[in-house]
Design goal:
- The protein has about 280 residues and is of the alpha/beta class.
- About 35% of the residues lie in helices and about 20% in strands.
Length: about 280
């Protein structure tokens, strides 16, 4: 058991329980959950005004309340949308973000060594004393505006290689390469080790989330902006091929019923395709 103390309440948590975070409610009013035990990583896609940040705030708060070490990487808006979520760490610098992801990749490797030592294949199967003494608890890292975070800056051909601007661009691109490297490493090695990525973006760019990464992300959420149609190409880029038909039907049903702020669809390899609504106040 672990106790999380905040300024407003004390929550007693069981860190060995399944990590499921509240997403919203179904059209029938039933709760819809994001099961990170079944699928450790999640992609959230949604244009500006769709409620993406509202959803992320719910997930960050839920992750912290569930006893997970929660970190938000927000290099574009510098954590403004998460500033009052005081139980989550915020990273707003690209170099610090790369270091945070590198440290997480190292933690995954350390847990793998413990798996081998105790002959287990899931972090919850480690002896409780080992989990307590070695600090083995869920880790959830949110990366907001992922496409912009990992965007390379082009070096103008006319730029002096000795200038501060030239060196700044190279440093930027070096840190971007580090972030991409560790994201790939985490996505491919974190299963069953209690480490989770939630990557959010306004659009899916295959150069940033190639098939090698997409294939290891078991949950995909798409937020919809009222009055704006979702293109077939956007659905095809965001979701796995086997889910595209069901997702398209769910999105059409949402549009036909009058989409409102916070309407969304999730496709999960463990739970299928489901519509839901995020509590949203415009």
């Amino acid at each position: 058991m672990a106790t999380l103390t905040t300024d407003w309440t004390i929550l007693t948590l069981t860190t060995a329980s399944a990590l499921s975070l509240p997403l919203g409610t179904s059209p029938e009013g039933e709760p819809v959950m994001l099961n990170l035990d079944a699928n450790p990583h999640t992609l959230v896609v949604g244009p500006c005004g769709s409620g993406k940040t509202v959803l992320l705030r719910h997930l960050v708060a839920g992750s912290s309340a569930a006893g997970a070490k929660t970190t938000v990487i927000d290099l574009i808006r510098h954590g403004v949308g998460f500033r009052d979520l005081f139980t989550a760490d915020k990273v707003t610098d690209r170099t610090a973000a790369a270091s945070e992801l590198e440290s997480t990749a190292s933690e995954i490797a350390r847990r793998g060594e413990l798996f081998a030592k105790y002959n287990v294949d899931h972090w919850q199967q480690l002896p409780e004393s080992v989990r307590r003494e070695d600090g083995i608890h869920p880790i959830v890292i949110f990366i907001d505006e992922y496409a912009s975070t990992v965007h390379n800056n082009q070096v103008p051909t006319s730029l002096d290689s000795n200038s501060d601007m030239y060196r700044g661009i190279l440093e930027h691109n070096t840190e971007v390469a580090r972030i991409l490297q560790f994201v790939r490493q985490i996505v491919h090695t974190a299963r069953n080790r209690g480490v989770h990525l939630v990557i959010s973006t306004q659009r899916v760019d295959p150069s940033h989330t190639p098939c090698a990464i997409r294939g290891s992300i078991g949950n995909t959420v798409m937020m919809m902006r009222p009055g704006h149609a979702v293109s077939d190409s956007s659905i095809a880029m965001a979701f796995n091929k086997e889910d595209v038909g069901a997702v398209s039907a769910a999105i059409r049903a949402t549009a036909d019923s009058g989409a409102s702020h916070g309407d969304a669809v999730i496709a999960s390899s463990a739970g299928g395709v489901q519509r839901f609504h995020v509590p949203y106040s415009k």
